[in-house]
């Protein structure tokens, strides 16, 4: 009897060990699959962050030529200000769709993928996607180019209230009896934002089986990663010295109207002959001496 009881206990212990191993293998397999998938999702997130940084940077160096936004008609924007003082900047322009094409080919593509000179015209996904961007069934996580959204916007800088007051016109009396409205015209909507969103795995049957509907929790239907990057730009350098002169001359009343009657100082000519060469409000571009250019 003792031998029979001992054999039964040993058999039960062995069965418990097998059941434990099977349960652990099942649990660990699910955990491993989940960890690997989280790594794939994290790679999508990281590239979304990279994309938003790229988009924001591109908007600081390329003006926005989207006619729907009509930024060129707003003098507080870089585009509107450039219309008067830096027209060459308007020629170096990109729309949001152009930047999206570059994001598709430069960031949402496999490592080592070639970049064409016309990537801004890209409307489809790159031929090769990042190595991790597939589910366990081999289906791409990113299905189409429409799942990638890119947008940019311009907003007033955080100190816009102070900037606006500093750029207000101020009256200056003139010899004609009327006031001259002096002003320094500079853009104030220089806070450039770049936003990127990437929707993935919306039609992944594998992930839907792994995460089915559970009571109040809905079934897996895809994920969307979004990020916005903001950069402050300083575009207060016009296109060439003539445009610089045009900007600053507005803030120098004497460069535009007479502030002191000429007979008020011409009578002093016998004491200071050079007074005849006096130029009120003279604005002149810096000129580098030829001797300095040769060094």
In short:
Helix content is 37%, strand content 14%.
Features:
295 residues, alpha+beta, two-stranded parallel ribbon, 8 helices, 14% strand
Description:
This protein is of the alpha+beta class and 295 residues long. The chain has one domain. The chain is built from 8 helices and 7 strands, in the order H-E-H-H-E-H-E-H-E-E-E-H-E-H-H. It has helices at 2-61, 78-85, 87-91, 96-106, 160-166, 205-210, 241-249, 290-293, and strands spanning 63-64, 93-94, 148-155, 170-173, 179-182, 191-200, 223-232. Strands 3-6-7 form a 3-stranded antiparallel sheet. It is elongated. The model has no long low-confidence stretch (mean pLDDT 82).
Give a topology summary.
Elements (H helix, E strand, L loop, with lengths): L1 H60 L1 E2 L13 H8 L1 H5 L1 E2 L1 H11 L41 E8 L4 H7 L3 E4 L5 E4 L8 E10 L4 H6 L12 E10 L8 H9 L40 H4 L2
Parallel strand pairs: 1-2
Antiparallel strand pairs: 3-6, 4-5, 6-7
Please report which band the strand proportion falls in: under 5%, 5-15%, 15-25%, 25-35%, 35-45% or over 45%. 5-15%
Looking at the structure, what is the overall shape? Answer: elongated
Oligomeric organization of the protein chains = single chain
* Unreliable stretches: none
Which whole number gives the mean pLDDT? 82
CA radius of gyration is 34 Å
Widest sheet: strand ordering: 3-6-7
Helix % is 25-40%
Class inferred from helices and paired strands? alpha+beta
How far is the first residue's CA from the last residue's CA? 111 Å
**Structure summary, number of beta strands:** 7
Main beta sheet: 3 strands, antiparallel
Q: What is the succession of H and E elements?
A: HEHHEHEHEEEHEHH
Q: Enumerate how many helices there are, as a single number.
A: 8
* Number of structural domains: 1
């Amino acid at each position: 009897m003792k031998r029979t009881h001992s054999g039964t206990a040993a058999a039960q212990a062995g069965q418990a060990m097998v059941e434990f191993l099977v349960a652990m293998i099942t649990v660990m397999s699910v955990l491993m699959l989940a960890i690997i998938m989280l790594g794939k999702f994290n790679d999508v997130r990281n590239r979304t962050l990279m994309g938003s940084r790229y988009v924001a940077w591109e908007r600081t160096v390329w003006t926005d030529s989207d006619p729907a936004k009509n930024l060129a008609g707003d003098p507080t924007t870089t585009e509107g200000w450039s219309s008067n003082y830096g027209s060459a900047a308007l020629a170096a322009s990109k729309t949001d769709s152009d930047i999206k094409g570059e994001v598709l080919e430069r960031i949402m593509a496999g490592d080592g993928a070639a970049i064409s000179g016309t990537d801004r015209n890209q409307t489809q996904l790159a031929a090769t996607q990042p190595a991790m961007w597939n589910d366990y069934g081999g289906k791409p996580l990113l299905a189409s180019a429409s799942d990638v959204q890119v947008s940019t916007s311009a907003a007033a800088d955080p100190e816009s209230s102070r900037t606006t007051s500093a750029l207000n016109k101020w009256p200056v009396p003139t010899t004609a009896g009327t006031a001259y409205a002096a002003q320094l015209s500079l853009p104030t909507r220089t806070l450039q934002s770049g936003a990127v969103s990437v929707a993935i795995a919306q039609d992944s049957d594998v992930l839907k089986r792994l995460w089915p509907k559970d009571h109040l929790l809905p079934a897996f239907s895809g994920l969307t990663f979004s990020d916005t990057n903001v950069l402050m730009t300083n575009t207060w350098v016009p296109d060439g010295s003539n445009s610089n002169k045009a900007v600053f001359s507005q803030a120098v009343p004497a460069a535009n109207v007479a502030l002191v009657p000429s007979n008020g100082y011409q009578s002093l000519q016998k004491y200071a002959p050079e007074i005849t060469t006096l130029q009120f409000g003279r604005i002149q571009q810096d000129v580098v001496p030829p001797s300095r250019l040769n060094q």
